[in-house]
Amino acid sequence: MQLKFIEDKKSSMIADLSGEEHTFPGLLCWALLQDPKVTVAVYDIPHPLVGTPRVYIKTKGEEPRAAIKKALKLIQKELDSVKDAVSKLHTQAKKKGKK
After folding, report:
1. What is the CATH number of the domain that holds 35?
2. Count of domains in the chain?
3. Which residue in 22, 42, 48, 81 is deepest, having the highest Cβ count within 10 Å?
4. pLDDT at residue 99 above 70?
5. What is the pTM of this model?
């Protein structure tokens, strides 16, 4: 994935996410919207077959790049939580199988 900044202002940003489809842009927008300083976080794919996702971000009192960094940390935290839960389930299943 490559992030290409189309517009980078103090409180708004437009960026293309090349190499992505719907999954990551949707997750990124969800994580951005968890931040109370982010007022808009949406994405669009102009053409379903050849389009590159374009993310639109608007903030109040926070630089969009800082908001993206916070969102990425939140995504990592959530993924670690899922990984831990799956690991616990796997451990429990192994214990049940041994009995």
Report:
1. 3.30.1360.10
2. 1
3. 42
4. no
5. 0.84
